[in-house]
Amino acid sequence: MVASKKKNVAKKCLRTAALIVLYLYLVRFEYSANRKLAAKYDFRSAELLLIFQSTAAILVLYVVSKSKQRNIPRLNLVDISTFLPFAILCFISAKCGILVFKSRGIPETSPFKTCLFPFSLEVEKVLFPTNVFRIARVSSLTAVLLSFLCYIRGGEMAYGWLQCVVSRVTYAVFVNGVKKILIDAEYSSLHIFYGIYLALLVISVLVGTVSFSVFDGLKGPPWMRGDFVYTLMSSVLFGIGTFFNQVYLTYFTSPTFVVVLTYVAQESWNLGMGKMYPFSCNTFVLVAMFIALISFLFDLIHESLYDLGKKEMSSLP
Q1: For 250-293, what is each residue's pLDDT tens digit?
Q2: Which residues contact 171 (CB under 8 A, 6 or more apart)?
């Protein structure tokens, strides 16, 4: 039993390492494509990226899950009337992050979408309680808060960073909920919210595409420009890969650890020059990395002890 346990832990570590390497490359490539697209065209490209990536990834995830499961929850009129206002509110909240990003005047896509995804998983631990050690929860949440101090120190408070946090958490809780429904098969009445949210995203694709071609002053629709289509499709494909990688990486690591990986992939500090200034945002991110590692170890130890105790209890007469 001990040998089997060690073998499972080794496999888990190898999968985690492979996912980390893959995630670093995917985020970096997506970030580069987003910068090129947003700098060459208009800020609405960031909105299109968010819509296209999330919609395409969820549709692919739905098709895969539909092929493996026969019973997908059906819509109910009572549930629709109950969750429709909540879904619309969350959809508007997701748009707030894009509006705040536009007001900053920075010609690149903000890392809020990817950085705040793991933070929403900490919220998921509250909404959907699991067997997670309390110290791991506290340390992981503390690491997230420390990592966000870099935005405050950089003057992001004036641009409403709290709205960005709320919008990204809303979007990411939705993504994690889709995972729970389609992959984990944890059906509940909240599946109505996810279905309505997906419908709103699909509708916004059409609205966003029309507004992009009408108001941006481009010569002709953007889909007729080869460089635009190439850059957009590259970003969408990398975004889908990042989406799936985030989902599966949270199975093996602490959610906060994904935040730190995103900082590394987007070169939030200059590792090549070896510059690590004291009392800077880089120091906070380094502290977040250390605490996230502790959180991951606590989670791993607690899960191992919990599984072992569960097996011993089941073996008792």
Answers
A1: 666 655 566 556 656 655 444 444 443 333 445 545 555 565 55
A2: 50, 54, 94, 97, 113, 117, 120
| Per-residue CA distances from 223 to 55, 220, 290 (Å) | 18, 8, 45
Three-state secondary-structure class, residue 206? helix
How far apart, in whole angstroms, are the C-alpha atoms of residue 262 and residue 259? 5
Element (H, E) at 104: helix 77-104
Reported as a single tens digit per residue, the pLDDT across 131-181 is: 445 544 554 455 455 545 544 555 444 334 444 444 444 445 555 555 565
Q: Which residues of 82-105 are buried (b: 16+ CB within 10 A; e: fewer)?
A: ebeeebeebbebbebbbebbeebe
* HSE-CB of 254 using CA atoms within 13 angstroms: 31
Name the amino acid, one letter, at 311: K
- Do the beta carbons of residue 47 and residue 216 sit within 8 Å? no
The distance between the two most distant Cα atoms of the chain, rounded to a whole number of Å, is 77
Token duo for residue 47? 């909105």
* Two tokens, residue 313: 């209890």
Beta strands in 72-211 (DSSP E): none
Cβ proximity of 89 and 162 under 8 Å: no
Query: Contact at 8 Å (CB) between 213 and 48?
Result: no
Structure token digits, residue 300:
């791993």
d(CA 257, CA 255): 5
- Count other Cβ atoms within 10 Å, centred on residue 201: 22
Q: Extract the residue ranges of the chain whose pLDDT is less than 50.
A: 43-45, 70, 72-73, 75-124, 126-129, 131-132, 135-136, 139-140, 143, 147, 150-151, 155-171, 189-190, 193, 215-220, 268-281, 284
Residue written as token pair 């950089």 = 154
- Cβ–Cβ < 8 Å for 23, 246: yes
pTM: 0.48
